[in-house]
Specification:
The protein is an alpha+beta fold. The chain contains five helices and 13 strands.
């Protein structure tokens, strides 16, 4: 969180510089004439502000909320999660760094994710909807509470491939995934991966509660952190989840 404190101090310095007294001069008992440019110390402070990861991420587009999930390299089953919000002063880090578990075989290179390969896809993705075994914890996205009939169709040959299916009204394919698994699906959000539902390209990519183990391709952190993130996300801010190895998602 050191980056957050640095950012805040820069904003305070800039705000003081915009008042009748120049911030740098005021510290030394001097008052700069109105309309004069910011003092050298204030300008230097702004110049010294460290760049945030989000400034170098590929695929931000028009998002005003970004969640990054970045691993050190392919094959790692651990990644680091950070969340960023864009304000009138630029980007600021809201959450993180948090340690996350990802696919048991790490990240798949961009475009290489396949059904059942145990890898997490690389790319920049929107979020579809939120869900959980427990009632809505107070989120801004559409929320689906899981029932005993709630399944995710991960059968590439099925007409409902890569969809949430209620078995009372639809066929979930062969060996569908139950959406009432605890603790992992107590709360989660669906990552909009393979929304074209291309057979074999992978399905059921979620950000959910961890059980301490690597996943089949999802991203998992502690329950409290999942809830904090889900409550923070706003559809109107066009959030994106950008994930992959550092080399794959930064420029």
């Amino acid at each position: 969180m050191g980056g957050i404190r640095t950012w805040a101090s820069v904003v305070v310095a800039a705000a003081l510089a915009g008042c009748g007294a120049n911030a740098g001069a005021a510290v030394h008992g001097e008052v700069a004439p109105a309309g004069q440019p910011p003092s050298a110390p204030a300008a230097a402070a702004r110049a010294a502000a460290p760049a945030l990861l989000v400034d170098h991420l590929r695929g931000v587009h028009d998002a005003r909320q970004v969640v990054s999930v970045v691993a050190s390299g392919y094959g790692s089953t651990y990644a680091t999660v950070r969340a960023f919000a864009k304000t009138s002063h630029g980007w600021r880090q809201t959450f993180g760094p948090w340690t996350a578990r990802i696919g048991r075989n790490g990240f798949a290179p961009r475009g290489d994710k396949r059904e059942g390969d145990g890898r997490t896809p690389t790319g920049s993705f929107h979020l579809q909807f939120m869900f959980g075994v427990d009632p809505n914890p107070g989120v801004h996205f559409r929320y689906r509470q899981s029932q005993s009939t709630s399944k995710w169709d991960d059968d590439s040959a099925s007409a409902n491939y890569n969809r949430w299916v209620d078995t009372r009204s639809g066929y979930p394919g062969r060996n569908p995934e139950s959406m009432r698994v605890l603790p992992v699906y107590r709360y989660g959000v669906v990552v909009a991966y393979n929304t074209a539902r291309t057979p074999g390209r992978g399905s059921a990519i979620f950000f959910h509660v961890t059980d301490g183990q690597s996943t089949a391709g999802c991203i998992a952190v502690s329950r409290s952190r999942v809830v904090r993130l889900l409550r923070w996300l706003r559809p109107v801010r066009k959030p994106r989840m950008i994930m992959g190895t550092k080399a794959a998602v930064t420029s």
